[in-house]
Amino acid sequence: METLDDYSGSGNTAAYKRFLAADPPPEGYNAEWVAELRSHTGRGRRIYRVHVLSRPLTPYLRFELGWGYRTNQSGGEEFFILDTTDQSNPLEGVRDFWLFDAQTPVTMHYDASGAVTGRESLPDERAQEFIGYRDTALALAESFSAWWPKYGEA
Q1: What are residue 119's phi and psi, to 5 degrees?
Q2: How does DSSP assign 72-140, residue by residue?
Q3: Among 88, 92, 117, 130, which is disulfide-ready with 105 (CB 3.0 to 4.6 Å)?
Q4: Is domain 13-151 classified as CATH 3.30.870?
Q5: Which of 11-20, 71-80, 119-128, 135-144 has the lowest mean pLDDT?
Q6: Domain ranges of the chain
């Protein structure tokens, strides 16, 4: 689950600068990650995320969703949007997390620039808590492929 409006301190800053300059994505953008995704999804693993956000989209979210999500879909990654623009956030206060095989939760820590400052692996006994967060997010989210044409490309 992702909850921040800006992760620009964490990732591909050169690509983000290109995006801000209105340049097209570079040839082979994110190709290594797409290949990694295919290696997992090709073996039947499911990789997906829900991003909790509100409109209007920040420049970083336009970049992440427009370049990143759209590219990563070709590797089999699935994306969902929990748009809280016109509703309260049902997961207020839940930080970004990964949930591996529905048993190992890992929470993410970021600084003000969106740079990862740490990850915290939680005991497997807390998995049910994070499964609940995931299930709530998925139940209320819309698929990215349905959401993006309505709000992202506008």
Answers
A1: -130, 145
A2: HGGGT-EEEEEE-TTS--TTTTPPPEEEETTTEEEEEEE-TTS-EEEEEEPPGGGHHHHHHHHHHHHHH
A3: 130
A4: yes
A5: 11-20
A6: 13-151
